[in-house]
Amino acid sequence: MSGLLQGRVAIVTGGGRGIGRAIAESLVAEGAKVIVADNGASISGDGGDPEVARTAAKELDNKAGAGSALAFTESVASPGVGKQLVDLAVKTFGGIDIVVNNAAILRDAFVFRADPADWDAVIRTNLSAAFYLINAASGVMRDQSKAGRGGKDGYDWGRIVNIVSSAGLYGNLGQAAYASAKAGLFGLTRVTAMDLARAQITANAVAPFAAHPRDRHHPTRQRRAEDLQGARAQDRRPPRRQPRDGALLAGRQAHHRPAAGRARPRGLPVRPAATRCPPRSRRTGCSGRRHRRQARRPVHRSHDRSRSLQYRTSRLRRATMTGSIVVKTVEELKDAPEEYREAVAKLVISHAVNELYGAQVFDEPAIAYAPTPYAKWLTCRVAMEEYGHHVRFKQLGVQMGIPEERMVPGTGKRPLSIFEFPLKTWEEFVAIKLLADLAEILQVEDLLHCTFHPLRNLARATMPEERFHAQFGEDFTAELIKTPEGKASLQAAIDEYFPTCRPSSAARSRATTRSSASGTSSSAPTTRCAPTS
Amino acid sequence: MTQIVALPCTILDRVTAEVRSASWFAALGEPLTDGDRADAASYLLALGFDALDIGIAHDWPEAEALLKAPDWSPVWWDREEAQRRALLNHAEARYPEHALWTALTELTTEAGELVHGKAATAAGRMGDAAKASIHVAAGAASQAVYQLAVARLAGEQASPFESKFRLFAAGRWPLGIVGTRLILF
Is A413 part of the contact surface with chain B (CB cutoff 8 Å)? Predict the structure, then answer.
């Protein structure tokens, strides 16, 4: 037991058997208190056996100590029960940190023979129940956030994990209701992640493909399993997953700490709550062109979805998941579907386009502003590496046969770009490296699993450098904030380049009103840079 | 008015060859030789400094501390930069912009990768370098290559960047002026 989840409270629906049981065991093993919610119904949702949840809770208690688990034996498929469950968690364990929506039933039938009543039952248990519980839990989680449950570092907890299925992505014969519910659960996960991002609560979906569920002896399942075994003998698919595997994934999601403390749904194409990043400038030494484009977009995409980098990347990622397309060399690319080739080309171009010549990095104002020779030469090298990233992508583009003119800014444009926001201080450069380079990492991270292997390999070569650049920002930030003056200068730089970190004008107005009323200083509070420890 | 002429490839080809054959960071921490002292003296003279003592850094932590020392000389850095800018202006007036910057970019990109690897090798051999210090060394060496190329393209044979590059080529790393001494690693 690592104690990663010590002090956390979890609810696992369908936690009495199969994958849910394994998830509950995994969470308890990490130190969490768990409510095992399971009414003990059959796989079709009929009947019920309260002993299923009670037995599971008892065995968890035996393993991890008394008081580790609690049984909840009602069906979760009605609106009021979600609140009952959350109230039970708060009353018994003092709060709710993790929700795992795992409960599901099956009523398979061909769509032309399906009974609408079965459809309703499946949707209610597999999709609506998840909403009921999230609806009840997320309000409490947000309140906990405001009450500082996370301690001195601020609340960055709250994990919602929905167990989905490949049937929801690709469909499955005779599973109209089940697949629709799981597809709906994907959507619910995405929106939940967006809605709760500000409260640092993440929402993720885990699809444990072909696990041994508790219905392993279900006749339909058994036939399907036999079919799969036959197919596997021919195409050497990966070995069948075990419930423990799904639990492991869900457990990882439950204690996954988002990069940079940002609540970021992983594995789903949801943009993190990105702040406005600085524009590309040869002065900044960071490739801000992409950031500028991102900054102009709202966090929730409402336009031109097909052209967004995130969308294209998610398409590539989907191809990775299915394994339907794998391109190992540039030469093989010509045999890939046109849509795939174009998507890859656009990704490469978006990283290759650059407005400056590499040797001009030695004129970066940041080098002049750097306070010591150490910082100056380090800035030289970091700026060179940033430029080198563009060079690598451009070289790959050339190998792929992308016309040169697609990888340079508009024709007739001078290679020396204008500086919309020229750097004025060293602190501004440090702030940009600290924050904007994290955005770079997120973008390159997307490519690490690209099915076009030359691009994947390029991303892998680039990632360590990107991480070093963000570390550069972190190290100099730590240096700067040692003095009140340095801290104030850095805060000013952050306010300049990341203005969305500031409170809204309405909030500023409220703060001013409060300050005036209490006779204190009228200056509006801004997001403070927390000292690193 | 300076007449724009074609970029002389032979100059940059020669710089490239010198970069490839240099003993980058091979003599870090070693005792100074007469040749090192002579190059250091030429470097100081070309920058307009009176004779200064030559100091030595013995290992990477000491070099890092000296590079962060509060009494490092901004005058030294500014004089280098002033000369580099003057030479660059001269080169820019002399050669087509695209050809000039493309050639410099190719040179510095190749040199950057090369010297970074050499710095990492030296750090691995000496065993006490911080990861960031390897980047610092690579930045310093890349800048020296760039400065040398600019000076050569500007037709300046007596610039401080000649002797600075010679120090790098001999395996040293001139860390700059700290207090009243020019420090070599």
Answer: no
